[in-house]
Design goal:
This protein is an alpha/beta fold and about 375 residues long. The chain contains 16 helices and 10 strands.
């Protein structure tokens, strides 16, 4: 299968893997955080070892772009390690492993969060929605932004887990809608520090600079972790360019690489990147990269802890090797989601879609607790 993928990719495989949070206690963190963002330090180390054993050269994003463009040849397939969002867990638990093993990596930073106590909207919403479930709280939908029902309805009726509902919702609504819902839910739940998640803190600039001095790369990931395909052109340009300039000013490096929030991109977003000194943009599309392919639509395999768990619940080297060799993709068992989207201004912060209006949940369903799947 590896040989087949190699031929299909133009002679060399270029695997780009994506992580978010590397944690010391996966089981404990699983009780309070979005599962798909987590991987234990132990499993992360095994992933690096497994990639090396599978014949990959652990390379930089620049190496991968050069090989794809034909500016460089390589005797091995390449594996590039990337991190999104700049979580402090990466500094605490991934950075020491990478440094010890001599593995390059790039972290994409949403710069308005770096050096602050702020938490990402997805983490805040995940935390709030669990509080709603735990309290068996019935929201006053009339006092919430209209799209709230599209998020809360499937969760409280048991149709979706919190993680799945959040992932779908964030991809459809712009940042301003998310923050409106957060503010309204916090008000209805009575406010207080317990409504802000303790976990999910991000790096500060001293930590970023320390990693950069050790040769680790950093790319832009917007200012406010913004899904750009849902925003007007002026916002797109500001989010991209100010993120780039902030990193360059704070760290003293040239930023040439970008990660699309939610993995979504458009021709308009690519034009802004290509005309402002960027060399690459990474998606979350789990497809093979091909020699000669577009460097602004680089494909990534997003990994977390459970991707390496076998049938007995223990770490499985064979399953991990299958993930790296894309066995499931070759066999047609995986169903990657394309990241290219039409560019539009997003939905308004009021009103409910016809699909949801036709299936408005009952008050009884809204109070039913739902057990979150791991």
């Amino acid at each position: 299968m590896a040989a087949y993928r190699r031929v299909q990719s133009g002679g060399r495989r270029i695997l780009i893997v994506s992580y978010h949070r590397v944690v010391s206690d996966f089981t404990g963190e699983l009780q309070r955080s979005i599962p798909g963002l987590l991987i234990s330090q132990e499993t992360f180390r095994k992933h690096l070892e497994e990639a090396n054993a599978a014949g990959y050269e652990l390379a930089s994003i620049g190496d991968a772009v050069d090989v794809m463009a034909g500016r460089r040849t390589t005797k091995k397939d390449l594996c590039v390690v990337t991190f999104d969002d700049g979580y402090r867990d990466v500094y605490r638990y991934a950075y020491p492993v990478l440094k010890q093993m001599g593995v390059p990596a790039i972290t994409y930073l949403p710069t308005a969060f770096i050096g602050t106590d702020k938490r990402f909207n997805h983490d805040r919403l995940f935390h709030l929605l669990h509080r709603v479930q735990q309290r068996r709280f019935r929201p006053e939908y009339d006092a919430l932004p209209g799209p709230s029902l599209e998020l809360l309805g499937p969760i409280l009726s048991g149709q979706k887990t919190v993680s799945a509902a959040l992932d779908d919702f964030i991809g459809e609504y712009p940042t301003r809608v998310l923050t409106d819902i957060i503010d309204a839910l916090e008000q209805q739940l009575g406010g207080g520090k317990e409504l802000v998640p303790e976990q999910g803190d991000v790096m500060n600039w001293d930590e970023v600079r320390r990693m950069a001095r050790d040769g680790f790369e950093f790319g832009a990931h917007t200012l406010g972790h913004t899904v750009l395909t849902l925003e007007p052109q002026a916002v797109v340009e500001r989010e991209i360019l100010e993120s780039k300039r902030t990193i360059e000013r704070e760290v003293g490096i040239t930023v040439r690489d970008f990660a699309y929030c939610n993995g979504w991109y458009s021709d308009e977003v690519i034009r802004v990147l290509s005309s402002n000194g960027f060399r690459s943009g990474v998606t979350t599309e789990d497809f093979p990269n091909r020699i000669g392919g577009d460097p602004f639509t680089l494909k990534r395999k997003v990994l977390w802890e459970n991707f390496s768990l076998g049938m007995t619940g223990d770490y499985s080297p064979s399953l991990t090797a299958c993930q790296f060799d894309d066995c499931f993709g070759v066999l047609g068992m995986s169903h990657p989601v394309p990241g290219k989207r039409p560019h539009h201004l997003g939905n308004s912060s009021s009103g409910v879609s016809p699909a949801v209006a036709a299936n408005i949940i009952s008050p009884e369903a809204a109070t039913s607790p739902v057990k979150e799947a791991p």
